[in-house]
């Protein structure tokens, strides 16, 4: 393997790292990280996103490289619009979950030879609620990565076809690029979650308002992105 190919693969890794910082990626992952309360879980979200993204790129890249197929511009644009709509949906979901979850609970106790039942409305046990949604959050991050991979496949595959002399090396480029993306998303997801975790632990009265702001921003960003693509 000559120096030019090694340089191209290294460049692919660096491009994967920078690819994680694309605005639509940051906003989408931000809506996911806003719902976590631990750095470990936030890091896993980034990794799952990156794996989904890389899987899609590998499948589509394999088809493009083996069939010498070029993705039509209208298809690439449609996928970008799909991503924009997904970001709007993620923002709306974050707003929905930003409501303080309440539960209706009955307490029964006895005294003075009589039994009393009192009904209370209180905040749900956040630890139980969080544990219940861990798997769903990771699956959602994986799915979001899959969709982003579809939208980002056109530019990547054209780059691969222009720089790599064979299908095997083209696939190696995609894997190296994806590895860089996974690492970049791991770091970015962890970093984005830090303010939310700090607020949840130290300034709980600001936690929900910040999550609402993040949801509104995501919806606005997705709407503007879709409008720019459709006009």
From TrEMBL:
InterPro entries: Chloro_ReproSupport/MetalTrans. The keyword Transmembrane applies. Keywords: Membrane, Transmembrane, Transmembrane helix. It comes from the Bacteria. The chain crosses the membrane at residues 44-67, 74-96, 167-200, 212-230. This is Sulfite exporter TauE/SafE family protein. It comes from Candidatus Nitronereus thalassa.
